[in-house]
Amino acid sequence: MIEVRNLKKSFRVHVKKPGLLGSMRSLFVRNWVEKHALKGVSFNVEPGEIVGLLGANGAGKTTLVKTLAGIVYPSDGDVKILGHVPWERKNEFRRQIALIMGQKAQLWWDLPAEDCFLLLREIYSIPRQKFHDKLNFLSETLGITEQLNIQIRRLSLGERMKMELIAALLHEPRVVFLDEPTIGLDFTAQKAIRDFILQYRSQHQPAMILTSHYMEDIKALCKRIIIIREGEFIYDGPLQNIVNTYTKHKIVSLHLEKEISPPNIPHEIVAAEPQFLKIKIPRDQVAPSVNSLLQSLPVADLTIEEQAIEDVIEALFRGEM
Amino acid sequence: MWTLQVFTLEMRKIFSYRIDFWTQFIAYIVVWVGISYFLWSSIFAQKGIDSIGDYSFHALMLYYLITASVAKIIRGQDIGQISREIYQGELSRYLVYPIPFFLYKFVCHLAHSFMYFIQLIFAIVFFACVFGLPVEITITYDRVLMCFLFLLLSCYLHFSIAAVIEIVSFWADNVWSLLVMLRFISGLLGGALLPLVLFPEWAQKILYTLPFPYLISFSSEIFLNKVTYAQTYKATFIVFAWSVFFNIIFAVVWKKGLRQYSGVGI
Fold first, then answer.
1. Do B263 and A72 touch (CB under 8 A)?
2. ipTM, 2 decimals?
3. Cys bridge to A52: A150, A222, B87, B210, which one at CB 3.0-4.6 A?
4. A283 and A145, same structural domain?
């Protein structure tokens, strides 16, 4: 459904020195730098799949989403979405996609949501009965039927985001780009939106790309994630595999029956207390090492932990893995 | 039809700011016509004349009232909106919708123009009731209809010119000064500041090949019986030609501009 091959995007950015002198100088001489937002990325997304796109700020996530939605032109590469090249912006393509931008209101600020939806009904040529059924269903599911006649600018952030979701999904798009859909929302609203997205996925099987800084979103919605760093993909695979792929160690915590002096073992001791030890053991040596520890130490209790996904992803963002 | 929906939505937006709607209109008309009244009454008095060009003082005041309103009608929405949307990245949402951006924006523009047109009718009725219509002017249905249709063309032409300037913001962060320049030039060469009949004949000949007279003064002249049918047909052709010219420029610049667009702010 989404096929991306060697996609590149570079921007020319105007650089200005600070201060009045810098501003005056830029009237006559302009300095530009080339910023490579995407450095040749390739991937596919299948129907019904929700792919989480993760990366630090400025990594290239939003540029990728904007390119796939046909908003910006790439510098190089091929993209086919539902058989269309996005930046040709053919109406047939645009009728089948939706873009939700958590940081940017897409609805008309001065109008009640229902008026906005009526306009969208016309834009997407949705039959009247189908539109009303769909709107009733979506607004009831998200619990915002009462707010449909209130101006968008008077709604809370959560209510506005729910309206944005309805607006984006009224025409039943087959490809949905969600750029931080839960940003700034409280936990209840975040959960409502996540549940709603899952429900939409199960009903319509669209291909979805989600960017979010909240791991809860990613864990709840995405089985597959792509991690992007400085315009390059550094991981594309199942969310669960990321720990196996990138962590070389497991953490073994031992609660001891009596106080001992730190033992002489061939692994790094991360934390040591009189009756407690935390040891970092290479993944492939966990079983024999634990066996040896159990025999040599008075162990009362033992836990083996994986490194948290959040920590692994954060380390990947920073380039530490 | 989505265009009709956009039109009515835009009207509802205007209605939601009704105080602004009336104060802006009244202040603009009062200031503009007031300045013209004091300026021209002093010129008429000093020169001891009772007409200038082929305008009596009475007809001249009506001319200024109409041109002031027409200037607002053809300018429609606030200038700088498209450039602001490009600059702030709000253009992105329109690029995702399966509708042509130019047409969408023109319909929005037209909704504002229509509201100003209603204000113009109020203004003319008010003028006729308080000061009466100049004796040399006979209002006929066909003139009113022709004036209305020509106003539509003027709106389209002005929008086409302004849109070309606005999308320069794909490259320049701020095109406000260019838009102000258009406003000034269209006011001066379009007859809003001075009836074009007062320009030297050679200047008029050049002016009437340019788009500006057809933006503001020509509609007023149709209403005031100052132009013939033949001149109106010729003007319609010229407006059409200039519109095509600016639409071609828009299409080329838009296509190139979108390649520059980075959708900042999202």
1. yes
2. 0.81
3. A222
4. no
